[in-house]
Amino acid sequence: MLPSLVVKTLRDYRRASIGWLLGISAFVAIYAGSWAQFDANPDAAATATDGIPQGVRDALGVQDFSTGANYLQGTIYSIFVPLLLIMAAAMFGARAIAGPEDARVLDLYLANPISRRQFVLQRFVALTGVLVVLGLVPWLLVSLFNASLDMGVPAANVAAASLGLLLIGVCFGTLALAVSSVVGRRSVVLATTGAIAAGTYVLRVVGDLVGGLGFLRWLSPFHYYLGGDPLREGFDVAYLIVLMLIPAAMLAFAVIQFERRDVST
Amino acid sequence: MTAVIEAEGLTKYYGPRRGLEDVDLSVAPGEVFGYLGPNGAGKTTTIRLLLDFIRPTRGRVSVLGENPRTGVAARRRIGYLPGELMFEGREKVRDLLTFFADARGGVPARRIQDLAERFELDLSRTIRSLSKGNKQKVGLVQAFMHEPELLILDEPTSGLDPLMQQEFLDMVRAARIAGQTVFMSSHVLAEVQQAADRVGIVRAGRLVAVEKVESLGKRAVRRVEVHFATPVVAADFVDLRGVSDVHVEGTVLRCTVDGQLDALVKALAQHTVVDLISAEPDLEETFLGYYYDNEESSRVA
User: Fold this and answer.
1) Are residues B84 and B134 in the same domain?
2) Is residue B234 domain-shared with residue B102, that is, in the same domain?
3) Which of A75, B50, B88, B290 could, after both became Cys, cross-link A103 (CB 3.0–4.6 A)?
C-alpha cells in the first residue's frame, strides 16, 4: 500500500493530470500523425522549415523534415513537448509545498505523524508518478506512429529520447519542489522555475552556437537530454545518468532545507 | 507524573518582531488548560512551536515527553485544530478525513461516522462547498477522531453557532473524563471558564498569569449600567463593596463591579429600577485586574 500522503497527493493531482494528459496526447498525436504529408512529398519536407530563420532553427534544434528523426526532433522533442511537460512539472512541484503553504493548510498536514523529510519524499514520489504517466504518452504515441507511418526511427531511439524527455520533466518538477522548500510562495516557485528553465535552455543554445562558449552547454540539463542526439544515436547512458543525478541532488537539498525552516502562516 | 506540555524560557522572534518571550509553562496530564489572550498576543505562536511548525529562537519545549522537532511519532497522539482553518482542493470531506486517519495509523470508519453525525456534518460533500461553520466541524472531527492523548485547539469555537459551541464544550468535558489533556486557546473568557481547569493569560508575547479557573471567575469584573425612574446621586453607590468607577448622569448609573453583585443590587433596591444592563465580564479587564493586583500583592509581600 502506498503511504497516505502519496495517495492523497495523487488524488489532489488527478484532475490537473488528466488535463495535461489530454493536452500532451493531442499535441503529440497531431504532430506525429502529420508525418504522412511530408513523407509523401520530399520537396515539401526539405523546405518545410525554410520559413523559420536559420538562427531560430538552430536555437530550437529544428532541421528540415526530410527524415522521420528530423521531423520528430523538430516538432515534438526539441521544444514543444518538453515545454508542456516542464510546465506541468513546475505546477505540480509548486503544489507540493508552496501550494498548501500559500493556502495556509500546510500546518494541518504537518500536524500528522509525517516528518518534514517524509513530507518532501512522499510529495516527490507522487510528483514523479504523475510525470511518468505524462512521459509515457509521447513514448507510446510516437512509437505507434513511428511504426505505422514508417518513420524509420529505431524503436530504441524513440525510447531513449522519450526517457530523456521524462527526466527533463522530473528535473524541473524537482527544481520547483526544491524552490518551495526555501520559499513557500507558489508565484515565486513558478517564476523561479520558469526563469531557470528558460535560462538553461538558452545556455545550451549559446553553448552550441557560439564558438568558445561551448563549455556553457555542460551547465544545462537540456544538453544531457538532446546533446547525445538520441533519435539518431540512441541511448547515451552517461547523459541519462546525469539527468537522474540532477533531480536526486535537488531532492536532497529540498529535504535538508525544508527540515530546517519555519512554515509560514 | 511528568507534564504533557513543558516549556522553559520559550521565545520566538520573527526577525526583529517579537512573537513570544520567555514563556514557562507546564500542563499536567488530564488537565484542560485554557490559553487566553487578545488577538496577536502570541497564542498561535505558542501552539505552532508546540507542533514544530516553527522553531524557537530560544528556550526549550517538550510535548508528550518529546522534543517536537524530533518527536514525529508523538504526533499520532496529538489532535490539532488550527486557528485559521483552511483547506485546499476539491476533495470530499470523507477523503480528507480518511487521509488523516491513515496518516495516524488508522481510525475506525464508525468513529468518523459518529463524530460527523454528532456535528451534523455531511461527509459526502466537497470541502469547498461547506460554510465556514461546517469547515470548522471538519477541523474538530479530524482533531478528535483518533482519540489523542493531547488535544491542541487554537480558537476552537470560532465560526460555530451557539448550539455547536455547546456540543464542542461537551466533547471537551468528555475528553477530560476520558483522561485526555486539552490545551485550548481562546479570546473568549466564558468559553474557557466553562471548560478549563486552569487558565494561562498571555499578553504581548508574555505569559502574565496562570490561575485556577475558579479564582478568575470570582474576580470577574463586570460593567453595570442601571436606568432609574428618578435621578440618583453617585454618593449612594461609591462606597459599596466591589463597586468602582461610579458615574451618574441624571437617572443613569454606570459603574464597574468586581466580584459579587450583591451589595450593588441591595443598594439599587432603594430606588425604582427601569433597566439593568450587566455586560459579560470584560476579558481584558479581568486579566489586567488580576495581573496588576498580583503584582501589587507580591510587592507588598
Assistant:
1) yes
2) no
3) B88
Q: How far apart, in whole angstroms, are the C-alpha atoms of residue B154 and residue B64?
A: 18
Q: State the complex-level ipTM.
A: 0.88
| Cβ contacts of A117 on chain B, cutoff 8 Å | none
pLDDT tens for chain B, residues 1 to 301: 689 999 999 999 998 999 999 999 999 999 999 998 888 889 999 999 999 999 999 999 999 999 999 989 999 999 999 988 999 888 999 999 999 999 999 899 999 999 999 889 999 999 999 998 899 999 999 999 999 999 999 999 887 888 888 888 999 999 999 999 999 998 877 778 888 999 998 988 999 888 888 776 566 677 899 999 999 988 889 888 888 889 999 999 999 888 788 889 999 999 999 999 987 665 556 666 655 555 544 444 3
Distance CA B63, CA B6 (A): 7
Amino acid identity, position B48: R
**How many structural domains comprise chain B?**
2
Same-domain status, B175 and B49? yes
Cβ-contact B5, B63 below 8 angstroms: yes
- Confirm or reject contact between B128 and chain A (CB < 8 A): no
CB B128 within 8 A of CB A33: no
Q: How many residues does chain B have?
A: 301
Domain interval for residue B141: 5-217
- Domain identity same for B232 and B213: no
State the cell numbers at A208.
552550441
Distance from CA of B80 to the nearest CA of A (A): 7
Answer yes or no: do B174 and B225 share one domain: no
Q: Looking at the domain assignment, is residue B291 inside a domain?
A: no
pTM comes to 0.87
Beta-strand relationship, B150-154 and B181-186:
parallel
Residue B300 in domain: no
B301 located within any domain: no
